[in-house]
């Protein structure tokens, strides 16, 4: 997964071979909401946002930044 930021806020990403535009106002997530692997928990933070692909499919994504980059924790319909 690749995540591009504008002014330190998610703006677009590539995930599962698709380009996604962030189409709402991202919400910053803190430690207490994560069920991420224990080795990634130090300094863990992330975002929740709606992403829309080029076909118009919209999903909600929870993403977190681990030691080796950004990861999708969860993607779901709303």
From TrEMBL:
Protein name: Uncharacterized protein
Species assigned in the record: Microbacterium murale
Upper classification of the organism: Bacteria, Bacillati, Actinomycetota, Actinomycetes, Micrococcales
